[in-house]
C-alpha cells in the first residue's frame, strides 16, 4: 500500500497534465549515421591512403649520400627474401646483412643505390658508421611500419 502523502506513479505520460510533464525541449539532433562503404570502396580508399608511402623518400642527414627508401608490399617482401637467398647462395653469408640493407636502398630513379654483387660496395656499407646505418634502418622502418628483412628467415640448418 502506498504512503499517505506520496504521489501515485504515472505510467502513461499522455494522461498527465502539462504541469506534471517533464520539460523535454531539446535542440539536440540525432547524429547522422555514416554510409557503410562497400569492400571495393574500402580497398580503393586504402590504396589511395597508402600510395604516398610507395613513393621514394630521401633519407635525411647522410652528408653527400642521396639514398632513398620506399615501402614494400607483402609480395615485394617475399621477392626480396628470394633475392637475398639467391645472393647468399652466390656470395655466401659474409656480407648478408649489408645485402639485406642494400635491398631497401634506392637512388632517385628507384633503382638500387648499391650494386648487390659488388663486394667493395657491400664492404662500404659494412664500414659505414653505426649512426649512419641507424638512420638508414630507421628510415626503412618508418616507411614499412617498423619491419625489415629478418635475418632469421634466411638461416637454414646447414648454416
Structural overview:
- The chain is mostly helical and 159 residues long.
- Helix content is 40%, strand content 3%.
- It has 5 helices and 2 strands, in the order H-E-E-H-H-H-H.
- A two-stranded antiparallel sheet has the order 1-2.
- The longest helix is centred in the middle third of the chain and has 18 residues.
- It is elongated, with a radius of gyration of 32 Å.
The helix content is 40-55%
Judged by helices, strands and strand pairing, the structural class is mainly alpha
Q: Describe the sheet with the most strands.
A: 2 strands, antiparallel
pLDDT averaged residue by residue = 79
Number of helices: 5
**How would the global form be characterised?**
elongated
Contiguous runs where pLDDT drops below 50 for at least 5 residues: 147-159
Termini gap: 88 Å
Strand content: under 5%
How would you describe this structure in keywords?
159 residues; 40% helix; two-stranded antiparallel sheet; 2 strands; disordered C terminus; mainly alpha
Question: What layout of secondary structure does this protein have?
Answer:
Elements: H1 39-54, E1 57-58, E2 68-69, H2 74-91, H3 96-102, H4 119-127, H5 130-143
Antiparallel strand pairs: 1-2
